[in-house]
Amino acid sequence: MRAYRHVALVLIALLGAALIIFPLAAGLPKKTQAVDDLTNAFRPAFTPQAIEQSRTDLKTMNEMLEQLQAETLPGLAQQAGIPTPSLINLMGTTAPEVGKGLKEIPTIMPRFNKLAGTMDAQAGNFRQADDIPTADAPNTAVTYLYLIPGIVLLVVGAGGLLFSFVGSRAVVSTVCLALAAVVGLGMVVGTLATGVIGKTKASEKMFTAFRPTFTDAGYKQAHDDLDTLGKMAVGMKTKSIPSMAALLRKPVPQFTAELATQYPKVGKGLAETDRILAKFNALVENIGANIDTFDKADSIPNKDTEVSVMPWLLLGPGAAVFLLSGVALVIQFTGRGNGSTDPNAGAPRQPSGAAV
């Protein structure tokens, strides 16, 4: 009976040591700090209000560019009495940045639509990941969810084993086993109660979706696309519209007002382009500034293992500790009924007064 108690205490101590070594060896303190830095940086962009505004802004941009190409340019060409390709060539001559933008719009906008769509689709996963381990605790607390139980289990396992060998009674080792059972049960219940299994799965989906975005190549492409759109917008306002007004022999304010009235989506887009592009530019620059942070956060527990394994590295040891200590306690208490814990049990008794 005592042998099983010794084995249980040894295994509990080893599991405690493993729970201490794992987060430190995996670099969890730095990686979980990276998760907090990442969620703090992007939390404003993933609120329901921000996602809805981004959806509206992107719709404004898409509708403006679609109407510009499908209706506005052909209409202006007709007013000027020239073919549409000739008008576009003229705009490209007077404002090369506008010509470049018009040429690249068919490839630029799908990329921005994809980025905005990914953010929209992953907003719920982001908010779940942001709640690891709980809504009120930072992600850096995850490290201590391993360290603290690990230290307690190492102490009670090693301490119970020591007293089991040197002590004449099993009270201390019994208390240690009971404490281990409580800690193990707490690990299991805590893991299930906080919902981190579902949260880490959501986090895994989010990281998978954004990996192509948080790269040097992804950032550079988005940065260049915004630069093209920004220069095109400036060129439209400062060069193309004045040139078209001169071609049609109209004052610039009159031409601009007529343009906004006849083509309202273009008018609305031109009025809001600066704000919209500034907003997307801030998002893209935030991505560029957090590429290394994303990479660290995405490596929990390591590059080859998904983050969804993390709860099981608490749940498994917790269940093992609870079972080991529980079985040891059952054996110990049930064994006492037949006197098996008495080292002299079963020895023949000498008759009273018998000669030695």
UniProtKB/TrEMBL annotation:
The reply to whether Transmembrane helix figures as a keyword in the UniProt entry is yes
> Which keywords belong to this entry?
Membrane, Transmembrane, Transmembrane helix
This one is known as Uncharacterized protein
Species: Embleya hyalina
Q: Does the keyword Membrane apply?
A: yes
Record field: transmembrane: 144-163, 175-197, 309-331
